[in-house]
Design a protein that fits this description.
Layout: E1 17-24, E2 29-36, E3 38-47, H1 55-66, E4 73-79, H2 84-87, H3 113-124, E5 131-137, E6 142-144, E7 147-151, H4 156-168, E8 173-177, H5 184-190, E9 195-200, H6 208-224, E10 240-242, E11 261-265, E12 272-273, E13 278-283, E14 291-294, E15 299-305, E16 309-310, E17 317-320
Parallel strand pairs: 3-4, 3-5, 5-9, 7-8, 8-10
Antiparallel strand pairs: 1-2, 2-4, 6-15, 7-9, 11-13, 11-16, 12-15, 13-14, 15-17
Helix pairs in contact: 1-6, 4-6
């Protein structure tokens, strides 16, 4: 996708080969790794937008350590850990300001640390990219049915490219939804940059299956979009949910805990549920009456809180209104 560029990206003048470069400062900065090939497009990929999501960083760091393509067309920019302040603490958000990096884009140059980081990422990296992948996971206290997603776009060309990108990640089911502000996806959407995000299983660990799914999908993208040469595999048909309501894919807004206490869910990821079904209970620590959690809609459990504790208002479950196997 061609867009006007006010200045050059730092990688424009780099020679062909593999490079490491840090942008920003020691306190608020980003470690960037660049594979520069023959003239072509730029794909940007990052992990750890949230600091407790480890699959994306693990996959991208494996590329940093081992991948040295001989016949690369274009430029690949990888940021294994985008949110260093949160990653070092193993928390979703930076502890110094508590803000969610994927809620503050486009950020502010003189704002809080997280807002400054969003602004730095947007203006030094994203504006000069032709494609963007943001590799997420369910974090340390949730489990997710792995999916690839994107924001539906009024620009049919952008939408077509995003769908083609997502199809490369055919081991995932696909969930597309309308625009919501403040996200990494929002920043790409506003710049007409084709964008995909993936959600790996999470649960605080790193499954080899998740790493393989990321690797298979990303390298299929590189081949189909002509960054590298290689045999393209026959893609599986993905189950797809295209939401009309933006909040349907906002994972932290449904099935909020009715009380604080011990959380006991009686469903598993990918289970079928029907609206009104009791899917769990909260047992208040003061011994007061048990609170039930009922399914707000029918569908499949796509996200599950796996902690045994909850605070009132915490998300517990996400149910996606999809009939196909995910």
């Amino acid at each position: 996708m061609k867009r006007p560029k006010i200045k050059k990206a730092f990688w424009d003048n780099l020679p062909k080969g593999f490079h490491h470069h840090r942008i920003g400062t020691k306190e608020i900065g980003i470690e960037c790794f660049v594979w520069k090939g023959d003239p072509g497009e730029v794909v940007f990929a990052n992990g750890s937008t949230h600091g407790d999501e480890y699959e994306g960083p693990t996959f991208l760091m494996s590329l940093v350590n081992t991948w040295r393509p001989r016949n690369l067309r274009g430029t690949v920019v990888a940021i294994p850990v985008l949110n260093e302040g949160a990653f070092k603490e193993g928390t979703r958000c930076r502890p110094d300001d508590g803000k969610d990096l994927s809620r503050v884009f486009p950020g502010k140059k003189n704002g809080s640390p997280t807002e400054q980081l969003a602004n730095l990422c947007l203006n030094e990296l994203i504006r000069y990219s032709d494609y963007w992948f943001d590799f997420h996971s369910a974090g340390t206290y949730c489990e997710i049915a792995q999916f690839v997603g994107y924001y539906t776009h009024s620009n049919s060309k952008v939408n077509k490219v995003q769908k083609k990108m997502a199809a490369c990640f055919d081991r995932y089911w696909c969930w597309a939804a309308p625009y919501l502000p403040g996200r990494t996806a929002s920043a790409a959407h506003e710049l007409n940059i084709p964008f995909n995000y993936t959600e790996s299983r999470g649960g605080g660990g790193i499954m080899s299956k998740d790493l393989k799914m990321l690797r298979d999908g990303f390298f299929e993208f590189l081949k189909r979009f002509k960054f590298i040469k290689g045999k393209m595999r026959k893609l599986r048909r993905q189950p797809i949910r295209i939401s009309r309501q933006a909040n349907e894919a906002f994972l932290q807004t449904t099935h909020l805990s009715p009380a604080s206490g011990l959380l006991r869910l009686n469903v598993k990821v990918r289970d079928n549920v029907i609206k009104g079904q009791i899917i769990g209970h909260v047992f208040p620590l003061d011994g007061s009456s048990t609170k039930s959690i009922k399914a707000e809609n029918s569908g499949k459990v796509s996200v599950l809180n796996i902690r045994g504790t909850t605070q009132k208002g915490d998300p517990t479950v996400t149910i996606t209104p999809i009939k196909e196997k995910i």
